[in-house]
Amino acid sequence: FQGDGFRCDELSARAGRSLRPWQGKKPAEPVPHRFTIAIAALPSSPYSVFRPGGMHMNPSLYHSPPIIKRVGCCLLAVTVSLAAPAIAADDEEAREKVEEARRAHSELEESLAILARGDAASRREVAEDACYGFEALDSSPYREDELNLIVEALRRYLRLEEDEWIASRLIETIGCQDFRLLRAFFLDALASPFPSVRWRVFQHLRWVEEPEVVPLLEEAWPGEKRPWARVDLIRALAWNHSSRYLEEFRSLAEGDDPELSSAAIGAIILLDDQEALPLLARLAREGMESQRMEAADALSLMPESTVALEALLDATDDEDSRTRRCAVHSLAKRG
Asked: What does the pLDDT look like over 277-324, one tens digit per residue?
């Protein structure tokens, strides 16, 4: 299921992401990339992130010892050294990629610093543009310890952010990065006291299989009453193979809310609920227009069922042209 409902020619599509490997000739010598993250306990903020040279990276520091600034009473300074892909001296394309990686790392550092110490307007700007500000996560081969530092900084920010809008926008836009790289951050977000933050994670999990989130999603369902959030939560549960609330999904499938009905029918299909066959057959004949169309589409996945066949044949005489097309399409897929 996609968007507002099913498409007759495409019941579902898994969206995949792949890390973009570095391309280039065999390296001549490595070009180190170095920066320092300092986390301090301050009266105004429990932690802060600094970069050598202030808010803008000083290029000379790429080959210099890390600078550790002492701020406040408690300071943890961590030097993160990333060996950028080495390049051949005459390979201009590879050189440009290294420079782009340095720019991305600098942008990521600045984003973390603003989230830690910036005012609301600055934090909001970072949150709105986090897909760009954190693109180094997706394009650079971070070591595990380096990645853990970044994720921990984001988790601390989330615990301290008091503005629900800013936090939810960050969760929404940073979701363009690989979910698994930021797994711990998103797990924290699922437990956030802010409803909109939790909702944004539901949206990401509509297309991400992550077994670790299933208990948290199942825990969220009973208390989630917002219709739009329930739609995404149903899809996230089904995509992650949770059938705990399948009985409720069947009830919602024949309910009056078109969005919830669509999501529930989609869940029934993804979870391969054979017991729902009579329900789908009934919806294909008697449901609302959207239900008839989607149920007809769903019945194509039950090629051995005579009940499904009879319902589809009836649907070919439906007064709605889209339902008729879906029924014909489903019959064709049955062979």
From this structure: 889 988 988 899 889 888 888 888 777 788 888 888 888 888 888 888
For residue 182, the number of C-alpha atoms closer than 13 Å in the C-beta half-sphere is 30
Tell me the DSSP string of 279-303: HHHHHHHHS-HHHHHHHHHHHTT-T
User: Considering Cα of 104, then 106, then 107, then 113, what sign does the dihedral take?
Assistant: positive
> What are the structure tokens assigned to 5, written together?
């409902």
Q: Is the CB of residue 53 less than 8 Å from the CB of residue 16?
A: no
* pTM strictly above 0.85: no
**Cα Rg, the chain, nearest whole Å:** 25
Q: How far apart are CA 7 and CA 271, in angstroms?
A: 18
**Residues 25 and 33: beta-carbon distance below 8 Å:** no
Q: Which two tokens stand for residue 13?
A: 């599509």
**Interatomic CA distance for residues 205 and 63, integer angstroms:** 41
Per 3-state DSSP, the chain is made up of helix, strand and coil in percentages (nearest 5) of: 55, 10, 35
Residue 107 carries which side chain, given as an amino acid letter?
A: E
Dist CA 140 CA 159 (whole Å):
27
